[in-house]
Design goal:
The chain is of the alpha+beta class and about 290 residues long. It contains six helices and 16 strands.
């Protein structure tokens, strides 16, 4: 994916629900073992790609509504139970849904939480502390998924650190309906770039988009994520994008299913799904990334 294509994302987003209590609901309370989390790859790879987002979980108060919406919008199917629902794209697991037992007293909670591969979860957790972030869930072993820790960066964006038990999924050209890109909305992008450079060994390059800089985070010349400046009324957060064939048609379908469109151009859309979780749609015709070392 070239930097110009990566830069074609909107510069507007609404706040993504209330994330204060997600630490407890993603992995269980601090004193209990984590709930079952499936592996992030079907077959063991025994390869680790630090800096790669390898999985996404939708933490939501309305799991049934999420399945109804995404099952109509994308070629996604679902399997699981009250504790955890796997998302499959044409039979391949691509993410999960973590149902909440109830809404937060301040209102609904719904957000996509990315799993970021790191070489050493415990060491990365100490980086978070040292650099002014917070640790919502201390490192713990979730046998099928791996060693995990739930953290917030210094501005409060939530991310799950992971060293996968079976290794990370291999790189490749994601077909329409699968995850394409991750984008961090930060109030201080330069500080965010420095933080994530230490956390996940990212390098960065800056390109101009709409008169503003767009930072591309890379590992070994492989693009892994972007960083944009968030408006002051938007909570810092990671926004995932799904590859689509036609952004306009997919956005229209999403609206018909109850989503709210908050930004769009010819080949990119940002929407809030009916449960309240922001997500992006992106048309992309680039070449597949090089395999991670």
């Amino acid at each position: 994916m070239d930097a110009g294509t990566q830069a074609r994302h909107g510069q507007a987003l609404v706040a993504a629900g209330r994330l204060t209590l997600l630490a407890a609901v993603v992995t269980g309370c601090a004193s209990s073992p984590p709930r079952w989390l499936p592996p992030v790859t079907e077959a063991p790879t025994q390869r680790v790609a630090p800096g790669k987002f390898v999985w996404l979980d939708l933490v939501t108060h309305d799991a049934a509504g999420a399945q109804a919406f995404y099952g109509e919008l994308f070629p996604w199917t679902f399997e699981g139970h009250d504790e955890y629902v796997r998302i499959l794209h044409e039979g391949t697991p691509v993410g999960g849904i973590v149902p909440l037992a109830r809404e937060d007293e301040r209102g609904p909670i719904s957000a996509w939480v990315g799993n970021l591969s790191v070489a050493d979860v415990d060491a990365a957790t100490e980086v978070v502390r040292r650099q002014g972030g917070s640790v919502e869930r201390e490192p713990v072993d979730a046998p099928d998924r791996g060693r995990i820790a739930l953290v917030r960066d210094p501005e409060g964006a939530l991310v799950l650190l992971l060293r996968a038990t079976q290794g990370d999924p291999l790189d490749g050209d994601p077909p329409p309906g699968r995850w394409l890109w991750r984008e961090l909305w930060a109030h201080d992008p330069e500080a965010a770039v420095r933080f994530y450079a230490e956390l996940a060994s990212y390098e960065s390059e800056s390109v101009e988009f709409g008169g503003k800089p767009y930072r591309v985070l890379t590992v070994g010349d492989v693009p892994r994520a972007g960083v944009v400046e968030a408006p002051r009324d938007v909570d810092p957060q990671w926004l995932p994008y799904v590859r689509v064939k036609d952004a306009g048609a997919t956005a229209a379908r999403a609206e018909a299913l109850g989503a709210r469109i908050v930004w769009r151009d010819e080949d990119a859309v940002i929407l809030v799904d009916p449960t309240g979780a922001p997500i992006g749609l992106q048309v992309w015709d680039g070449a597949p990334p090089e395999p991670a070392p």
